[in-house]
Amino acid sequence: MNGPVVYTGGCHCGAVRFRILVENHEATDCNCSICRMKGFLHLIVAPEHFTLLRGADALTTYTFNTNTAKHTFCGTCGIHAFYRPRSHPDAYDVNVRCLDGDVLGQFDLVPFDGVHWEQNVHLIRGEH
């Protein structure tokens, strides 16, 4: 896609809603234990391009391992629509599957070997 596009999305029950501005339609498909189980397709969004429209009070946070990533999810329906990732702790990581409409086909999916996260994280941080 050319140019920035605004999307809305949220959780299954609708308690959590957000709006994002997407400039790069590339999402990461990670095979680590938590992403594989959740079916999360990662879209890193700068904080200035993410707006929580409603549901801050509905969010629950789960942390593990280094406790850097803040895995937020709706406390009512359990859907993980976005979180603050360890790889980009100042950004938001939005689950492309939680965007409104049938938009998954608009994104290029890039596989990421999250099973070996420490050895590969430089790839998703844009480091060489």
Radius of gyration from the alpha-carbon trace, in angstroms: 14 Å
Query: What is the rounded distance between the termini?
Result: 26 Å
The 3D shape can be described as: globular
Say how many strands there are.
Answer: 10
Per CATH, the class reads Mainly Beta
What is the total number of structural domains?
Answer: 1
Would you tell me the overall average pLDDT?
89
Spatially, the strands of the biggest sheet line up as 8-9-4-3-10
Structural category: mainly beta
What's the CATH topology label? Metal Binding Protein, Guanine Nucleotide Exchange Factor, Chain A
CATH architecture title = Beta Complex
Put simply, the count of helices is: 2
SSE ordering: EEEHEEEEEEEH
The unreliable regions are none
Provide the β-strand percentage band: 35-45%
Largest sheet: 5 strands, mixed
Approximately how much helix is present in the residues?
10-25%
What distinguishing features does this structure have?
single chain, 128 residues, mainly beta, Metal Binding Protein, Guanine Nucleotide Exchange Factor, Chain A, five-stranded mixed sheet, three-stranded antiparallel sheet, 10 strands
